[in-house]
Amino acid sequence: MNDNASELSTSLPCPDWCTLPAGHGFRSMADDGLLLRSHEGRDWSVLNVGIGVSADETALSDAGPLATAQEPKLWVCTDDSSPGCTTGSEVRRLAAALLNAADEWDRVATS
Questions:
Q1: CA distance 13 to 28
Q2: Is residue 11 in a domain?
Q3: Residue 41 placed within a domain
Q4: Calpha distance 86→80 (Å, rounded)
Q5: For a 10 Å CB count at each end of the chain, is N or C smaller?
Q6: In tens digits, what is the pLDDT along the chain, a chain of 111 residues?
Q7: Structural domain includes residue 66
Q8: 17 occurs within a structural domain
Q9: Taking the model in full, what pTM does it have?
Q10: Could you tell me if 22 and 39 are in contact, meaning their C-beta atoms sit under 8 angstroms apart?
Q11: Distance CA 87, CA 62 (A)
Q12: DSSP states of 11-69 as a string?
């Protein structure tokens, strides 16, 4: 994937769960030469763990048509430089964020 492509604004709609500005552009080019943009849903950060929902789509041009639209993905990533959960309260906060993210995935995957 080539992340050096400049962002191309588009009139193609975003899913209703996307938290980025309407018409946010295609930022990169996929290996097959199609334009690529990511839709981002809500995200949560607890201690060194980030949790969120996103989905990628590709298009032939900034005006469309869409070539592919992936099913939303639930992602979890960590910052290895930070300590993990150290108390029961922190573990509960992380568990709550994971449950919130799973609920959000359920909502956007069926929209």
A1: 18
A2: no
A3: yes
A4: 14
A5: C
A6: 444 445 677 888 899 999 999 888 888 887 788 888 999 998 888 777 888 888 899 888 888 888 888 888 888 887 766 555 556 777 788 889 989 999 998 988 887
A7: yes
A8: no
A9: 0.69
A10: no
A11: 48
A12: -SPPPTT--SPTT--B-EE-TTS-EEEEEEEEEEEETTEEEEEEEEEEESSTT--EEEE
* Residue 70, CA distances (Å) to 10, 33, 99 in order: 18, 17, 22
Instruction: Tell me the longest C-alpha to C-alpha distance in the chain.
Output: 50
For residue 105, what are the CA distances in angstroms to 5, 33, 40, 77, 78? Answer: 29, 29, 11, 16, 19
CB neighbour burial string for 51-63, b if at least 16 within 10 angstroms, e if fewer: bbbbbbbbbeebe
Its domain, for residue 103, covers 28-109
How many domains does the structure of the chain reveal?
1
